[in-house]
Amino acid sequence: MKAVKIADKVFWIGANVHSEDLFEGIWPIPNGIALNSYVIKANKVAVIELVREWGGASMSFIESLRSLNLTLKDVDFIILNHLEPDHTGFAHILKSLSPKAKFVTTEKGAALLDGFYGIDENIMVVKSGDKVDLGENKSLEFIEIPHVHWPETMASYEEDSKILFSGDAFGAFGVHQGSIFDDQTPEVNKPYWEQEMLRYYANIIAMFSPNVIKAIDALAQFKINAIAPSHGLIWRGKPEVVIKKYSRYANYNKDFAEPEICVVWGSMYGNTEAMLNAILKGIASEGIYIHIHRVPNEEPSFILADAYKSAGLIIGAPTYEYSMFPPMKYLLELLQKKHMWHKKVIYFGSYGWSGGAQKDFNALSEHMNWDIIEQLVFKGHPTVQDLNKGEEIAKKFAQSILEIPSKIKDEDY
Ligand SMILES: Cc1cc2nc3c(=O)[nH]c(=O)nc-3n(C[C@H](O)[C@H](O)[C@H](O)COP(=O)(O)O)c2cc1C
Ligand SMILES: [Fe+2]
Ligand SMILES: [Fe+2]
After folding, report:
1. Could you give the residue ranges of the DSSP H alpha helices within 264-413?
2. Does residue 128 form part of some domain?
3. What residue owns the CA closest to ligand 1's atom 19?
4. How far is the CA of 205 from the centre of ligand 3 (A)?
5. Do 239 and 309 share a domain, yes or no?
6. Is residue 411 included in any domain, yes or no?
7. Is the model's pTM score more than 0.85?
8. What is the domain extent for residue 117?
9. What does the alpha-carbon distance between residue 219 and residue 229 come to, in Å, rounded to a whole number?
10. Which atom of ligand 1 is nearest to the CA of 272?
11. Beta strand pairing status for 38-41 and 10-12?
12. Which of 251, 283, 303 is the last residue of a domain?
């Protein structure tokens, strides 16, 4: 790959990876993922974020450096904003191939560098406000943003170009589609990036939303011309709008999210599905935005994105061996784990004799600040009365969700 210039002396040297592997061994990446890495080539050479060997990424990184007449030997600083192996998997190779390079990380990062790669020398430990001067008017300032996503996370700011290297924050799944920049991305492709950024957030970052809010506060003092995350697009069109968008994501689990409904359902023999149809009829009559997902047929990764942004959640699943239908139990566990809080919720499901799904639903929905509007539990096939009731409740539910103000409308994309 050839390096891509971002600003004077600042280049992208990352890799676009297509792989059958799941990201973090759990999240599907049908559109691949960009491992963004950057280099500042001034008197001193600083590499910011690395790649891991994955689908040729490390070779691509070396080739990109070579396109700038740089070799690994020339690297003075390796800035590790975040130690997760998608950005550091190549660190132990650099340790021997870049002998003069210093690894720059936070105190917690230094411990991880030792733990993951046995690297315990040539480390420069930094904290918020510390700077590295690269000469030729280039410097990097570090800002600790712990728990966005791991505890050691920091961001790096280059003052001359006013680029923020933000780590996972503002990142997205998906490979670049012809350009690394948002302002060179066709309008029609923007929803793809919005969805992949939201999915990355819901899958990876959502649990750390209070830390995202703190990080956005800590970064407010910097004038930002471009945000260069470790995945996805470089945001230089309207970075302030992207920050607003991220702040909106971070607030979704503090309050009701968007006036949309995410319906997640599973059914073995169609009894729960019969109620699903009545419920859908009820909500559709109100003209609300509905996302519908079936488990286990659909990947939780995509369901989490829609569930996270929806103020309304409807969960339909039957009893299976005295407890919740297993794929739904797993999904509820993920909703709990990812802090998908503050939702208005309906649960419905069929059982055969003594039930059990409802007990699991109640246990799993505890501590999520869910406003549980209704639980419709019925034996075998729902009766006509059951179905009418379901439709009626769903209609009122949709009306109550529509009263929630949209958080998107103020943003100018
Ligand atoms: C594999 C299996 C396990 C089940 N376990 C229970 C159970 O433990 N308790 C119960 O009340 N019903 C149990 N049922 C009955 C279902 O909950 C019931 O048939 C329900 O109507 C299924 O809804 P569905 O058609 O939406 O799949 C079980 C059914 C199956 C197929
Ligand atoms: Fe990460
Ligand atoms: Fe990452």
Report:
1. 271-284, 300-309, 326-337, 357-365, 384-402
2. yes
3. 352
4. 10
5. no
6. no
7. yes
8. 4-251
9. 14
10. 26
11. antiparallel
12. 251
* DSSP three-state, residue 53: coil
Residues with CB under 6 A from ligand 1: 267-273, 318-322, 350-356, 380
**Which residues have CB atoms below 5 A from the ion given as ligand 2?**
84, 149, 168
38 and 173 together in one domain: yes
Sequence-distant (≥ 6) Cβ neighbours of residue 396 within 8 angstroms: none
Nearest CA to 17 among 33, 28, 29, 2?
A: 33
Mutating to test ligand 1, I would choose from 265, 267, 268 the residue with most ligand atoms within 8 A of its C-beta, which is 268
Question: Which of helix, strand or coil describes residue 33?
Answer: strand
Nearest atom, ligand 1, residue 380 CA: 21
Q: Which pLDDT tens digit goes with each residue over 106-125? A: 999 999 999 999 999 999 99
Confirm whether 409 is domain-assigned. Answer: no
Q: Residue of the nearest CA to atom 30 in ligand 1?
A: 320
Ligand nearest to the CA of 151: 2
Read off the pLDDT of residues 233-244 as tens digits, 9 standing for 90 and up: 999 999 999 999
Residue 137 alpha carbon to ligand 2 centre in Å:
30
Average pLDDT, the chain: 96
31: domain CATH number is 3.60.15.10
231 and 336 both lie in a single domain: no
Residues 6+ apart with CB under 8 A from 107: 125, 127, 152
Phi-psi sector, 368: left (phi>0), alpha (psi -120 to 50), beta: alpha
Domain boundary, last residue among 251, 282, 306: 251
For the stretch 329-340, pLDDT in tens is 999 999 999 999
